[in-house]
Amino acid sequence: MRYFVKVEMKNMVGRSREEAQRMIKAIAVLLRNTTWKCGRVERLVVNYLRDQIRKFGRARTPVTEMLQHFKLKGKQKSEFFDAIKRLEKRRIIKIEGF
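User: That's the sequence. What structure does it adopt?
Assistant: Structure tokens below.
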């Protein structure tokens, strides 16, 4: 009897490439205006979304726009995606995919 195991390519933080690409194409929506118990990167994300609402009156911001604004590379980029996931888990932001 043979068993087949599905092997999936993972990047540094254990996320599949498809999921990372979906995250880049997604839109972040600020649900709650709070940074209580948030880390440094999480506060940057919430403050950026808050400023977008204040300046332009829009609660939706593409993740690519935030990546360009923060000028993230390498490990910082993966920390940014982890921070977005934590904020979504705590229901502070919502990630809407295409």
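The first strand starts at residue 27 and ends at 30.
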